[in-house]
Amino acid sequence: MRFDNATIPEIADEYVLGLLDPAEQQAVEQEADKNLTLRTAIAASRERYLPLDLTVEPAAVPAGLWGQIEAGLADGDTPVPLGGATLAPEAALTPAANDNRRFGWRAAALSSMAASLVLAVALTWSLGRQADPVVIAVLLNEAGEVQAVVEDFGNDTAQIRVLADISVPEDKAVEVWTLPSREMGPVSLGLLEDGGSSRLEGPPLPVPRAAQLYEITLEDAGGSPTGRPTGPVLAKGFAQPPR
C-alpha cells in the first residue's frame, strides 16, 4: 500500500468506510501514527460521512441471510427468500433471445447485494465513531486555571469546551483565535454564543501543528471589528497532538 498525496484521500475514505481487509487496516493505522497528512485525511473523512450516519437507524442483519445468498449463488434455479420475500422462479420468466447467461447475471446481482450489505454494515460501524482531533489545547487564564479545551480536527472545524463560567456583558462577545503562523497572524475561529461550549466552523487554514497558539478574547458584540484580537485575553494555551 502506497501513501502519497494522490492516494491518501482514497485510502482514508476506504478506511473510514470499513472497506479495507484486516492487513490493510493495520497498515493504515501504523502509518497514521507517524503520518500527519494521513491522520488529517482520516479525520476529514469521518467528519464528511458523519451526517449520513445521523440520518439512518442501524438495522440488524436477518438471521441466515448469508446462507441464503450463498445458496442463491450456488443454484441459479432455486428461489431465494430474502426478508420474507421470494424471488420468482426462472420458469415464470419469459426468456430473452440471448438468455443463455441469465444465471451469470443472477450470480452477479446477488454478489452485488452481498457487497451492498457489507458496505451498509461497515457504514453503521465506522460512521458512529467519533472523529479524532489533530491537536488539543488546554486554555488557562492568568491565574493558571483551566478555562476551556480546544479540539481542532484539521478540517476547519474546532470543538470548544468551556470549563469555567465566563461573564459576557450584553455589548460584548467571546471570540476564539488561533495563530497558524507568525506570517499569517491570528485568525478568528468564530464566536462562542453566550460564552458557552460550541463547535465552530472556521476559515480554511493549514493543518494545525504542535505548539500552535489558541486563545479566547472578549470583543465587541459581533466580534472584533479589525479581524485581529483587540480585547482582553481571557484564556490561552498551546496545542499538542493527542497520544
Automatic annotation (TrEMBL):
Taxonomic superkingdom: Bacteria
Query: Which Pfam families does the annotation name?
Result: RskA_C (PF10099)
Ranges where the Anti-sigma K factor RskA C-terminal domain occurs: 112-233
GO BP annotations listed: regulation of translation
Q: Per the record, which residues fall in region Disordered?
A: 219-243
Q: Which terms in the Gene Ontology molecular function aspect does this entry carry?
A: sigma factor antagonist activity
Q: Which PANTHER family match?
A: ANTI-SIGMA-K FACTOR RSKA (PTHR37461)
Q: What is this protein called?
A: Anti-sigma-K factor RskA
